[in-house]
């Protein structure tokens, strides 16, 4: 089998030489273990943090060891009760073509009619739950709110915007990094308005899109976007801080928003969250999202790139905005 290892800790933007693809033999499964062939691997922005020792401490990827990440696969050999050959499973044993591990490392999945298996890494998986939790629980979005989502054409953002629309937002505004993505937002996804943040200062572009301000901000980007949103938030406005991808390659922490005093004046709440703390909402989310998909009230795209050999390039592409919707590697 083939697996990716971290060969060096990236400084700034990672380069292909920071990674190494190695071949290795897998052991035969022992009692209680299964052999799983991965079919889809997830690449996610959080992986950038795990590549840096200082940022995430003991969670960081170890050098010269297999990297981890979300993966969907099929059981090939099982020596464990509850899992049989052919079963579809989810694990965090990504960045490799196959894995042998205790059955407890895998969650059995039930295929959903009309939805590809890769969706368990996207719309039905961690990014979907992040959008759902962030918008409903963290930002406490209410019907009639005007909602702004950054990183709106990505895995989380595209769902946050659509959930806001379904939950009765007065208007849903989005930002993304290309004209094609802006068109996707206002066309297929039903955003009220959207802008390409690369065409001018975010503060001006947002003020133009939301002349009356916003009630809720779903932040995937941080930096200038967060500062612009603080300006645009109305009194008692709320922001769910999901991510800050604009700074993930920074070697020095960037200065924070310069307009923090606005939080005081406008009684604004900024609240961060980690989706991992909200696993209890997974069943409610799966049911609600499953219903929206079946009724075609939510649509999603995936950017699928082929081959384990391209996993690093796919990850680097994600960080550069090559994806629309969830970015995955098909094995
Ligand atoms: P996406 O599918 O949104 O992919 C990342 C996108 O980020 C790219 O497509 C690119 O789109 C955009 N981007 C890259 N650089 C910049 C920049 N400098 N400024 C603005 N946009 C940029 O990834 P996810 O949906 O998986 O993740 C979105 C965010 O949510 C990330 O910040 C991630 O860390 C966070 N996250 C947090 C979780 C939590 O538990 N808190 C869980 C899951 C994700 P474009 O072309 O528009 O620039």
Automatic annotation (TrEMBL):
Recorded hits in SMART domains, A to Z, give:
PKS_ER (SM00829)
Q: What Gene3D superfamilies does UniProt report for this protein, alphabetically?
A: Medium-chain alcohol dehydrogenases, catalytic domain, NAD(P)-binding Rossmann-like Domain
* Sorted UniProt keywords: Oxidoreductase
Q: Provide the Enoyl reductase (ER) domain boundaries.
A: 17-329
Q: State one Pfam family annotation.
A: ADH_N_2
List, alphabetically, the InterPro entries matched: ADH-like_C, ADH_N_2, ER, GroES-like_sf, MDR_fam, NAD(P)-bd_dom_sf
Known CDD domains for this protein?
Answer: PGDH
Kindly list the GO molecular function terms attached to this UniProt entry.
oxidoreductase activity, acting on the CH-CH group of donors, NAD or NADP as acceptor
Q: What is this protein called?
A: Putative oxidoreductase
What organism does this protein naturally occur in? Streptomyces lydicamycinicus
